[in-house]
Amino acid sequence: MDKPAVVVLFGGRSSEHSISSATAGGVLRAIDRDRFRVIPVGITRDGAFVLEEDDPAKFTLDPHRLPEVVDNGTRVLWPESAVTRELRVRDASGERSLGDVDVVFPILHGRFGEDGTIQGMLELLGLPYVGAGVLMSAIGMDKHATKSVLKAADVPVVPWVTLTRDALERDRDLWERRVRALGLPVFVKPARAGSSVGVSRVDDLAELDAALEVAFAEDSSVLVEQAVTGREVECGVLPGHAGAPPRVSVAGEIVITGRRFYDFEAKYLDAPGVELVCPAELGDGELAEMQRIAARAFEALGGEGLARVDFFFTGTRFYVNEVNTMPGFTPISMFPKCWIASGMTYPQLVSELIDTALATR
Q1: What domains are there in the chain, each with its CATH number?
Q2: pTM score, two decimals?
Q3: How many Å from the N-terminal Cα to the C-terminal Cα in the chain?
Q4: 91-106, pLDDT tens digit by residue?
């Protein structure tokens, strides 16, 4: 029997292009080649689909040279309709078939990939894929939408206001009053970006305008969020088998010393002042409560594919910060660390995600 063909799709047009590429390196290294045939497809920063090298080392996360998908002149041609699953590639020597696709693993972070856009394309073509569907992806990508849905589901979230340039210009006094009501410090974030891109901490209202400009450079909608004093803890969530409740990993903790917050440099460029601890030191009751809220948040957004749920823990209460529907799989990422600490190997985790997609799409 032929091995199922898995398209590992990565790169993309978002500001998280390099992180997506580094994540792909981890997945390409971990995927079970005895079970699956792999077709690596990269998306350049301009949005061209190219046939990439099946070389995990090429996409190693190097703080001095972040990996990226470069236009190599090839063009991957998706099926013409849902009638066929044949993938083709065109290059200088002509056009040839890459065979039928069984499942797509879209390891895309940020806009134009994690936000439901690629998922919509794959739905149109009738191709099974790993991860959340169109709606859950779109909600999870938009921090305002996520918070609104979670709040309606009685999941505790940090108070926030969302604004646009137009709203700010129409009534600046109103929005400044709403921001002041949150208290200081606050965090200013693009509504639809990840990896802490465009995020600033504001300790003085005189810093607000500069922080808004940084965030507006990433998105037309921006959140101003009340800062919470507490621990930053995270856990991974997977759907349950055969209708069972979601499965939630042990907790990991981001321990910050000497930095204002867990920014892009700390996450991916090996900057000092941050330690990822997994499993985190939580009491049995605390962990159970965190896992309960994580499962509720996952189901409130749609309960599909996978997620990493990020929390602030004050010592008495957990607040959901974000729900990431395609968390990073880089060697230093928390999502695989949490599942490994829960007893699952990295290759088993990747196989689990692919098998779930094959079974449910």
Answers
A1: 5-130 (3.40.50.20), 139-156+229-325 (3.30.470.20), 160-226 (3.30.1490.20)
A2: 0.89
A3: 21
A4: 999 999 999 999 999 9
